[in-house]
Design a protein that fits this description.
By secondary structure, this protein is α+β, with helices and mostly antiparallel strands. The protein has 2 domains: 161 residues, Ribosomal Protein S5, domain 2; 129 residues, Alpha-Beta Plaits, CATH 3.30.70. It has 10 helices and 11 strands. The strands form 2 sheets. Strands 1, 2, 3, 4, 5, 6 and 11 form a 7-stranded mixed sheet that branches. Strands 8-9-7-10 form a 4-stranded antiparallel sheet. Strand 5 and strand 6 form a beta hairpin. Helix 1 runs parallel beside helix 2, helix 2 packs antiparallel against helix 3 and helix 9 runs antiparallel to helix 10. The longest helix has 20 residues. It starts with a strand and ends with a strand. Bound molecules: L-homoserine.
């Protein structure tokens, strides 16, 4: 029986100014998944973590993503799936994308690469629809392609992998759950033209900063005048963390995806660790449990651990 074991990385969606259109894969944390190819159209899911996620395929993000892939394959196939998550659901670190993207990338390896990456993104977006009510690809794309991706459009799908310079990313995850579906509902549906202009400038600046390896340009483009002012009210200590981290030398940062995790970009590892101390102090003082990561950009996306044929 063909079997594969993979890791699927956490991702930071939006990258502050690029709501639904920019995302980055991280080296830590990551989920582990094992898939076995079957010759009948069934999906069996087993979670070996403690997050209490549904193992019913229609209610599991990996299940619905795999279902879409199975439907598009010309022969009857199915999968046994074992998932061990360390990316906590509701963390803002692309937990659902790791499951759905990890599942379809692993399945495609078992099918000797029958599908293109773009098709895999399409399949995996069914998982995001289940998790958040909306198809978006800013976690899935970097999870599949690795690195930083720009999703210029999802209808039709147009994904542009972007070059990025070495960056150290500090992430703090206050241990509260924010459902993406909830944090999407509180966003204003209309935007003032002056805010849109500011946001366009920042998105263009951020993309150019990545391509030109211009750390200062990246830093000053990490500004969100549309989503962050609304969503940040859900995150305890947010303003304090941002202010203190920037004063201590972080390039900039903000809410990871739909929160509650907060990330900061740093030019070097020493600063990244100092920023970690600041984040830890803020949450210790507030009496909020947290997890902190100092990590780097994951350039590969989903990675194979073992492949038994
Ligand atoms: N772009 C999405 C949002 C990402 O911010 O709602 C969700 O992880």
């Amino acid at each position: 029986m063909k079997k594969i074991k993979i890791t699927a990385p956490a991702t930071v969606a939006n990258l502050v100014c690029g709501f639904d259109i920019l995302g980055m894969a991280l080296n830590d944390p990551k989920d582990e998944m094992q898939l076995t190819l079957l010759d009948e159209p069934v999906i069996n899911i087993k979670h070996t973590d403690d997050y209490g996620l549904s193992e019913i395929p229609e209610q599991n993000v990996a299940g619905v993503a795999l279902h879409a892939l199975i439907e598009a394959y010309p022969k009857p196939i199915g999968f046994d799936v074992r998932i061990h998550k360390t990316i906590m659901p509701g963390s803002g670190l692309g937990s659902s994308a790791a499951s759905s993207a990890g599942a379809v990338v692993a399945a495609n390896k078992l099918l000797d690469g029958y599908f293109t990456n773009e098709q895999l993104v399409q399949f995996a977006m069914n998982g995001e629809k289940l998790a958040s009510g909306v198809k978006h690809a800013d976690n899935i794309s970097p999870c599949i392609y690795g690195g930083v991706t720009l999703i210029r459009s999802i209808h039709p799908l147009d994904i542009i992998p972007l070059h990025s310079p070495p960056i150290f990313v500090t992430v703090v995850h206050p241990q509260i759950e924010v459902k993406t579906s909830d944090s999407r509902q509180i966003i204003r549906k209309e935007v003032a033209l002056k805010d849109a202009i500011k946001q366009w400038g920042n998105i263009a600046g951020l993309v150019t900063g990545f391509l030109k390896e211009d750390y200062d340009l990246i830093g000053r483009s990490l500004e969100d005048v549309i989503i962050e002012p609304v969503r940040s009210i859900l995150i305890p200590g947010f303003a304090d963390i941002k202010k203190q981290c920037k004063e201590a030398g972080a390039m900039g940062g903000g809410i990871s995806g739909s929160g509650p995790s907060v990330f900061m970009f740093n030019k070097d590892e020493k600063t990244a660790n100092e920023i970690k101390n600041i984040m830890e102090n803020v949450y210790t003082k507030l009496g909020v449990d947290f997890r902190c990561y100092v990590t780097t950009v994951n350039k590969q996306g989903v990675q194979i651990m073992t492949n038994d044929r």
